[in-house]
Amino acid sequence: MDLEIRHLRVVCAIAEAGSLTRAAASLRMTQPGLSAQLRRIEAALGGPLFDRRQSGTVPTPFGELVIGRARAILPGIDGLLSDTARAARRMTAADRIRVGSVGAPLLGHLLLAVRALLPEADLTCRCQYSPVALLDDLAARRLEAAVLGDHPDQELPQHAGVALHTIVSEPVFALLPAAHPLATRDEVPLAELLEEDWAVPRPDSDRTPEYWASVCTSAGRAPFAPYEAEGRQLIEIVRAGLAVSLCQATFIEVPGVSVRPLAENPLWYRHLLAWHHDGPLAPYGTEILRRVADGYLATCSDSPVYARWRELNPHAARPVTVAP
Fold first, then answer.
1. How many whole angstroms separate alpha carbon 77 and alpha carbon 79?
2. What is the average per-residue pLDDT within 129-145?
3. What is the CATH number of domain 102-312?
4. pLDDT at 316
5. Domain 5-92 has what CATH class?
6. CA distance 145 to 90
7. Where does the chain show beta strands of DSSP type E?
8. Is 0.90 topped by the overall pTM?
């Protein structure tokens, strides 16, 4: 019989239990079965490992040698098995892809890319406002990929093992009630927008309100923001004519609101994709970036205001170019 790792575990279990009966119970074996296995192990090693006494089992000097070596070896073996199992899960985890996203136009394109490249994957997603929280979840491997965003001079921190890929930096536009006088303009001066009441997102770890306020202050005054809201609620406040706000350039106008570029493009937003260097999406990274960048361009054409802005600014807000 060749000696195996499981045989060393048996020897250590007997030594720790102090009797074959207790060791058999801990190993979920019968006592006769354990006795037979011990005899085979002793024959393979070349000598008795335990003295069988009425009070239990006591290691022989030869057994002490074997037990000492086994206890030195097994932690290293367990570490190796743990590390290789973890690595194997990472390589084969393509059956479970968890995606997180901020509110951005890239999520659908990312999901479609993953679905096309890994059609058997169990693909799920969840959205939240803060990119920092999503990045933390990604670094902790609670997500396999994320759609993120940040602002100039407020870039997201780097995390070991996480790759951040810029898709595009785009201008931030004004969001106005459709009947607002500024909605008749082709572009809106920030200084005039600051004369209105604002609706802004709640303060969060992405620091969007802080970024807006810092740029607005440099333009002459901080925005007066009596309304704090996000998503649909923010749009409803603007639609009601109570306030103005800012939005992503790809925001598609809905009845009751108008989107207009800001004169001289004072505010910008960067769209990013992120995944693990050694995660299940890493081998497909180039193709994912290409598909998402192409999808972003298609999204741009769905927003007439942004499409027009891009025609007038052909060298700005170009998504990353990825070779096929």
1. 5
2. 90
3. 3.40.190.290
4. 85
5. mainly alpha
6. 13
7. 50-53, 56-59, 96-101, 122-127, 145-150, 162-177, 197-200, 224-228, 245-248, 257-261, 268-276
8. no
